[in-house]
Design brief:
Number of domains: 1
Structural class: alpha+beta
Strand content: 15-25%
Largest sheet: 5 strands, mixed
Strand order of the largest sheet: 4-1-5-7-6
Radius of gyration: 14 Å
Mean pLDDT: 90
Order of helices and strands: EEEHEHEEEH
Number of helices: 3
Shape: globular
Distance between the termini: 28 Å
Helix content: 25-40%
Number of strands: 7
């Protein structure tokens, strides 16, 4: 496993402000589509699906409280990291779903994702 860690919102969450209605994150859902199309990817990176409610302790422990928005991909320190990665608490990460999809395609040799 590469050590890259991908954090997504668990699909089908309930927004406390709108009880009885269930939602998906469209940004996370796009990445879920890639994971569904290439199931072997989940064996190469760590994927964690977090609940909607905050604080999202799993990501707060890594990047800090101000970086709880998902999706986010936290990079393994032992591999080269893209120059456009952000840094928080000494960890490098990307939090744009489009950039995450692009990185996963490049790093894990999927067919190129066209935009």
């Amino acid at each position: 496993m590469s050590g890259d860690r991908l954090f997504l919102l668990k699909p089908g969450f309930e927004d406390p402000a709108r009880p009885g209605r269930f939602f998906v994150c469209p940004h996370c859902n796009a990445i879920e589509g890639l994971l569904g199309s290439f199931p072997g990817l989940a064996t190469q990176i760590e994927v964690q699906r977090l609940p909607f409610d905050r604080p999202r302790t799993a990501i707060v422990d890594i990047l800090g409280e101000q970086h709880q928005s998902l999706p986010v991909l936290v990079f393994d320190d032992t591999h080269p990291v893209p120059a456009d990665a952000k840094i928080a608490n000494g960890k490098r990460f990307i939090d744009s779903s489009e950039r995450i999809l692009q990185y996963l395609a490049e790093r894990y040799a999927f067919p190129h994702i066209h935009q």
